[in-house]
Write a structure and sequence with these properties.
6-stranded mixed sheet; 4-stranded mixed sheet; PyrdxlP-dep_Trfase; alpha/beta; aminotransferase; globular; pyridoxal phosphate; binds pyridoxal-5'-phosphate; 445 residues; 13 helices; PyrdxlP-dep_Trfase_small; transaminase activity
């Protein structure tokens, strides 16, 4: 235990190197060790570290005002950020509710869905349904909507119960179908769940357009979300796209859901929105929901102290402008293609690499004990954790996760470097990754 520190996260015995500075795609600790940051923490650092334009925008905001409560004032950066997001998001999502992170954005959406149906004269509609192998945040509402069994387990008695819905997981289709010939049984599973609980109770369905932490950049069948939209419309269920990880260019378009041809009723975002420079989250809300708040007596009964924080919003504006000026969303698409090609070249015949997938600079690798049977490693081996630690020791930071299948079974990593990554850095990333995978396999023998 490090007796000099009183910070507590996982447990008091976990110690970490001390961060000293960041520069572009690299982080440096106080001992001078350099790390290639290939996941931006938990898919946060979209621009890379220490971008002067963003730092200057934050300083300028601090020179005018650091904070004024949203119940008393609006502030220019949040108005400007809302305007920018309305321009970039799919049609009609013209209203932004700014909070401090992803879980708050999801909680706000869950409550907004409830408030909407109450305004619509349907107060019995309250339940938000999510899928298995999904993660929507660690606060109780968001955890209940999500289907990450491992994260839920300790808190299960405190979570509202809802029917389970299949993920769209073509590599391991829950219905044993081939994606080229399936009838989208996984999407129809939502209809089954809505009917099981009763459509009169269901307010919304929440899904990540491309599943991140729980499944390793799981790209859905190209028609999946169209069918989901139809089912939601059939039963008066709102569709919430959780773009906390995928939002703002990460998958090669400003919003990942745009790639699947539907407009959701709400979008939750966070991480990439201020790219880690300060904490922020947002729930983008469609006009038709906001229109139900049609007089001063209709209030959305919710809120957090730091909503619409001027510094957070200023960072968001600076990040979007920087991305626009440097065409970073296009770059995320292009460099993402480079990354996935290089990963496939290096790992396509690796005996323990089952699947390599993703869009833009949001890539996942799923590991298996046996490629032919797709049998996973035993959870006790903690393959993903050892791989993450080995890569870290080698100066490469990736995002390892277990529980791709259910409970703790299944291992994958997310690779999500900053959009400014160069081809040479991608080459180095792949080299260090292959070295780390091989060392991990050797350790397990
Ligand atoms: N939703 C998704 C898809 C996420 O990946 C995360 C975090 O990883 C969250 C919500 C929760 O965000 P936060 O950790 O900022 O509360």
């Amino acid at each position: 235990m490090n007796e000099d520190t009183h910070v507590f996260y996982r447990n008091p015995f976990t110690t970490y190197p001390v961060i000293a500075r960041g520069e572009g795609a690299y982080l440096f600790d106080t001992k001078g060790k350099r790390y290639l940051d290939a996941c931006g923490g938990a898919v946060v650092s979209a621009l890379g570290h220490n971008v002067p334009e963003v730092v200057e925008a934050l300083k300028a905001q601090l020179d005018s005002v650091e904070f004024a409560h949203t119940s008393q004032f609006t502030n220019p950066p949040q108005e400007q950020l809302a305007e920018l997001l309305a321009e970039l998001s799919p049609g009609g999502l013209n209203h932004a509710y700014f909070v401090s992170g992803g879980s708050e954005a999801v909680e706000s959406a869950i409550k907004m869905a409830r408030a909407y149906w109450v305004q619509m004269g349907r107060p019995e509609k309250w339940m938000v349904i999510g899928r298995e192998q999904s993660y929507h945040g660690n606060t109780l509402g968001a955890l209940a909507a999500g289907g990450n069994r491992w994260r839920r387990a300790l808190y299960e008695p405190m979570l509202y119960q809802r029917p389970r819905v299949s993920p769209c997981y073509c590599y391991r289709c829950p219905f044993d179908k081939d994606p080229a010939h399936c009838a989208l049984e996984c999407a129809d599973d939502l209809e089954r769940a809505i009917l099981e609980v009763g459509p009169e109770k269901v307010s919304a369905f929440i899904a990540e357009p491309i599943v991140g932490a729980t499944a390793g950049a799981l790209v859905p069948h190209e028609n999946y979300f169209r069918r989901i939209r139809e089912i939601c419309d059939r039963y008066d269920v709102l569709l919430i796209a959780d773009e906390v990880m995928t939002g703002l260019g990460r998958c090669g378009t400003w919003f990942a859901i745009k790639q699947f041809g539907v407009v959701p009723d709400m979008i939750c975002m966070a991480k990439g929105l201020a790219a880690g420079y300060v904490p922020i989250g947002a729930t983008l809300v469609h006009n038709h929901i906001v229109d139900t708040f049609h007089n001063r007596r209709n209030v959305f009964q919710h809120g957090h102290t730091y909503m619409g924080h001027p510094l957070a919003a200023a960072a968001g504006v600076a990040v979007i402008k920087y991305m626009q000026q440097h065409k970073l969303v296009e770059r995320s698409k292009k460099m993402g293609e480079e990354l996935i090609t290089r990963l496939r070249e290096a790992l396509h015949d690796h005996p323990h690499v089952g699947d390599i997938r993703g869009r833009g600079l949001f890539c996942g690798i799923e590991f298996v004990l046996d490629r032919a049977t797709k049998h996973p490693f035993e959870p006790e081996l903690a393959f993903h954790r050892i791989l993450g630690e080995t890569a870290f020791a080698n100066g490469l930071i990736i995002y390892p996760m277990g529980g791709t299948l259910d409970g703790r079974r299944g291992d994958h990593v997310l690779i999500a470097p900053p959009f400014i990554i160069t081809k040479a850095q991608i080459g180095r990333l792949v080299e260090l990754l292959v070295k780390s995978i091989d060392a991990t396999v050797a350790k397990l023998r």
